[in-house]
Request: fold
Amino acid sequence: MRRLLAWVSLGAILMMSCSTHAHPPDLQRTLRKSWTEYLEHFVQRDGRVIDRSDDAVTTSEGQAYAMLRAVWLDDRQTFDTVRGWTVTNLQGGDPTALSAWRWGRGPDDVWAVIDPMPASDADQLMAYALLIAAKRWKDPAYRHTAVGLIARIWEEETLVVSEGRVMLPGPWAKRSNPIRVNPSYLMPFVYREFAKADPRHSWMDLVTMSYQILDATVDTYGLPPDWCYLDAETGSLVPPPVGEEKRLHFGYEALRVPWNLAVDVQWYDDGRARVLLARMAHLGSTWRRTGRIPSIIAPGGAVVSDDEYVGLYGALLPAWYHSRPDDVDRLYAEEVDPRRSRTGWGREDDYYGQNWVWFGLALWGRLAVPPEAL
Reply:
């Protein structure tokens, strides 16, 4: 009861605070210009997104990011081209199939799927982008495909434990014990839309379970980790297997969690998301004290890598807009804007960082909106 009261009290305080800070001038133009630059540098004319920092491979995640950016920017031609390449090369010609995770040059020097196992973050975002596309371009065919894909996600990438239903990182995780979970793949804002499109399945249960898992990880480790581990029967948080302790770090995977929570605050005013953002105060206090945020942080706050990562700063912008409004303008001015490059932000070949700065700015600047807002 004491814990519940603390949540309610903190949530009530946060609900009363609202940032009035405006986003930078010309942000919409910057977002559109950076999309043109991104297409020129990372996306082939046939719709394949290239990770130039990793042997020119293509991932389902990269394809999903491009689809989501294209639909929010009302770029139907690029959306359809990227989707077409994905269906042909990652989904085996079936637009409702889960996508193979990795495509590239194999040991026989043939370009093809090199890891067929799906990754649920990409599958979720592809289905979500299709729902937005159906609304934006008034084409029910996109929604029909999304519903088929959503059903496959439910059947193949979720699992029931005693506490509820969990979103797995992919079908392979059904065989793991303890259960591997990637907290950044938990997207309550996505499940809210899936529940509308697919009422046969209890997607709102995943909203509840996702918040329970995120709460447990922040309570235990201080920050959400890249990966966490659940007991296969009870669903409760357990220590990692021997050799996987480093997966508990807050790093390049977990940086997406604040963005996911900011979406649920901004679009759905979810008090649980507000409280979790406030409980990640270590990031803000570290930045105020040292002028930087380490890219990898161990449970308890120890620095693992003191390198800075622009993708983390970008993802934090909309989160801090709601949880640290006095810092958000300075975060942008000192950590994001100066890192602008000819292809986006930060290292020119870092497609992952480019995307997470763009998503952060798009949410902060109200370009990224849910389907019902179109």
Remarks:
- Residues 1-20 have pLDDT under 50 and may be disordered.
- The first strand starts at residue 58 and ends at 59.
- The first helix runs from residue 2 to 16.
